[in-house]
Inverse folding.
């Protein structure tokens, strides 16, 4: 699964996330503006990192910030706006939210995970 | 959800730092757990005539796990070293994962078995990390 991109990887981007029930690593190939998505099939086994797919070229996207519930990739574009990339249709939807690149994070809201409030004694 | 403050936060004459966290569901015991790692360094106030060096030695870094079910903090009796500069932590199916962007491996903690494990990253990624430095 190892590739030799030594000369081509010119911009740093690597991030850990969860995708479709797998621990996943997303790396950006700056020259082609494409994103390589790997999933970990077996915890503790380096060889089980599997390249799932490559998306792109996506020249307008700076970096992903997280993966949504349906496996959509939420990203920050070059204008520091939040966009949603649909991996199935390969389309980008601008969500009309501005945010600074390095201060964005994605969290999935879930209702009634546990009752909020002081525990009864 | 009510969480008791960890007693570690109140160790006198020391600066406690908690840089790593994780939380999630323990499927085996039907519990929700929080895990955090403390690094402790001695606090030396400015020259006020007190010999602070007579304080007990600084404890080594350690991990603590909070169980919502038992409402208690427990200190793990082994330490898993995780490099500073943790970039991302993710949670999936009862396991917390931490990854530092200058490291070759990812550290994971199973909230049910309370056991750590590591997974090496691919060499390709190490190249990216080096080139950004």
């Amino acid at each position: 699964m190892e590739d030799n991109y030594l000369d081509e990887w010119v911009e740093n981007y690597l991030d850990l996330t969860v995708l479709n029930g797998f621990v996943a690593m997303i790396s950006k190939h700056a020259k082609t503006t494409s994103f390589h998505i790997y999933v970990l099939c077996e915890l503790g086994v380096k060889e089980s990192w599997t390249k799932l797919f490559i998306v792109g070229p996506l020249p307008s996207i700076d970096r992903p910030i997280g993966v949504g519930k349906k496996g959509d990739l939420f990203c920050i574009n070059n204008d520091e706006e939040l966009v949603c990339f649909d991996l199935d249709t390969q389309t980008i939807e601008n969500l009309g939210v501005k945010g600074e690149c390095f201060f964005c994070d994605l969290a999935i809201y879930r209702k009634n995970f546990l009752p909020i409030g002081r525990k009864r004694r | 959800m009510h969480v008791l403050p960890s007693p570690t936060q109140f160790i006198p004459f020391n600066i406690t730092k908690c840089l790593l966290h994780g939380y999630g569901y323990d499927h085996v015991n039907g519990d929700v757990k929080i895990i955090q790692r403390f690094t402790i360094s001695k606090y030396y106030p400015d020259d006020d005539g007190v010999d602070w060096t007579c304080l007990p030695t600084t404890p080594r870094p350690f991990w603590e796990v909070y169980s919502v079910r038992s409402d208690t903090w427990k200190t793990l009796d082994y330490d898993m070293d995780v490099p500073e500069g943790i970039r991302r932590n993710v949670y999936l199916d009862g396991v917390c994962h931490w990854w530092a962007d200058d490291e070759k491996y990812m550290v994971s903690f199973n909230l049910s078995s309370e056991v750590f494990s590591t997974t090496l990253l691919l060499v390709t990624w190490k190249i990216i990390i080096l080139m950004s430095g």
Remarks:
- The longest helix of chain B spans residues 123-132.
